[in-house]
Amino acid sequence: MSCRSVVPAAPPVDGFPSDFFSVSAMNQHTRLDTTPIPFIDVAAQRRRLGAAIDDAVSRVLNHCQFLMGPEVLDFESRLAEFCGAKYALSCASGTDALVLTLMAKEIGPGDAVFCPSFTFCATAESAALVGATPVFVDVHAESFNIDAESLKKAIATAKKNGLKPKAVIPVDLFGLAADHDPVAAIAKQENLFVLDDAAQGFGAAYKGRKLGTLGHATATSFFPAKPLGCYGDGGAVLTDDAALLERLKSLRVHGQGKDKYDNIHIGMTGRLDTIQAAVLIEKLKIFPDEIVARDRIAQRYSAALADVAIVPKVADGFTSVWAQYTIRLAPGKRGPLADALKAKGIPTAIYYPIPLHRQVAYKKYPAADGGLPVTDRLCEEVISLPMHAYLDAPTQDRVVAAIREALGR
Ligand SMILES: *Cc1c(COP(=O)(O)O)cnc(C)c1O
Asked: I need a labelling partner for 270 at 20 to 30 A (CA). Which of 89, 303, 324, 336 fits?
């Protein structure tokens, strides 16, 4: 509409109808302004990988070992090597990675599993699925990650409720490593198992150590939209603990003993498909490169938006793989911003609008005494912008310009 008014009528050229060029000019103008852009461009990565993926999948289609084929073991050793963990065990999803680990540690009814409320539901769901009680912990506003002081309160709350503190699941939210040292110190004191939920943060580092090596075990997800995603569901557990690995291997295949028909545990169907492992081998090769690209894009956003919004901060000793680029605005401001961007073809997302401790399925579980004020506030303030390794500068500039315009700057 505004385009029509600003594009001047072109003079007739060489016998073409007079509106021919103005129409094409107008279309071009429209395209620059409002062509929908993807929130995460999975197709751009697919184009880059091209035949490598087709070939990898074809190999599996030809050898027909669709479960536990050679690519699965190959991928597991590459994944462990990538992050510096001794062992990697692939599985069917990030949720299964969490659940299998809690099962392996025999965590269940009467046990408290501490986790943030400001996270994807699967973190707490894993505890509930094994019959344990998730106990919610507050986060730091600057990092969106677990607050050790709140963890101490939550441990006291759990004990008061007659629960046995057993495990803590710090989450590396939006790709940023949590502050793992204070969590480890409390865990040591309280004898808690530390299960890092790196579903969003795998590839990031904390004080020079890659995620996958912090805590007693790390769970990650290969859901397509995660920084390292496959073409379906997938996940993995990383650990240095050989006994835990053996138990996980058994639980992943129905608690098998010497074979599938020797059942020594109650387990599940939790394997990663060989086709997904084949895809992941190819994706892991370009992952380091993509992490660099994501960081460059995040820095660009931060430089362009720091004066109009609270932009994410990455403290010294931490890195992020930018699963999300999430800014904060004063309450009430993000709705109009999302609408203004949507009108220009720019998607946004809110992670997370309702914290877990206020969700229908989870509100019966305890939260640290004194409540989770930071979590409650963040749920009103956060909004995530398009973010992926293939977001080019002109497209990003369009996002930035639209945000500055909507916020009146
Ligand atoms: C995605 C995600 C999971 C679960 O992963 P799935 O592979 O979808 O089961 C767990 N925790 C967090 C923080 C996640 O973002």
From this structure: 324
* Closest-CA residue to 396 (of 39, 3, 46): 39
340-359, pLDDT tens digit by residue?
Answer: 999 999 999 999 999 999 99
pLDDT mean across residues, the chain: 92
The reply to whether 217 and 325 lie within a common domain is no
State if pTM tops 0.85.
yes
Do residues 111 and 164 make contact, with C-beta atoms less than 8 angstroms apart? Answer: yes
Using N-to-C axis directions, what is the helix angle for 148-160 and 180-190, rounded to 10°?
30
Distance CA 409, CA 385 (A): 18
Residue 236 lies in a domain: yes
| pLDDT tens column, 248-275 | 999 999 999 998 899 999 999 999 999 9
Structural domain contains residue 351: yes
| pLDDT 10s digits, 1-12 | 233 333 333 333
Same domain, 291 and 352: yes
Write down the residue that tokens 């803590």 correspond to. Answer: 168
The alpha carbon of 73 and the centre of ligand 1 are apart by a number of angstroms equal to 22
Query: 149 alpha carbon to ligand 1 midpoint, in Å?
Result: 25
The pLDDT of residue 52 is above 60:
yes
What CATH number has the domain bearing residue 67?
Answer: 3.40.640.10
The atom of ligand 1 lying closest to the CA of 96 is 9
Question: How many A from CA of 282 to the centre of ligand 1?
Answer: 21
What ligand 1 atom has the least distance to the C-alpha of 323? 15
Same domain, 260 and 333: no
Domain contains 12 = no
- Same domain? For 133 and 213 the reply is yes
Beta strand ranges found along 232-287 (DSSP E)? 235-239
Shortest-distance Cα residue to atom 2 of ligand 1: 199
Q: Which residues line ligand 1 (CB under 6 A)?
A: 93-95, 119-120, 122-123, 171, 197, 199-200, 221, 223, 233, 235
Half-sphere exposure of 30 (CA within 13 A, CB side): 11
Take atom 1 of ligand 1 and give the residue whose Cα is closest. Answer: 199
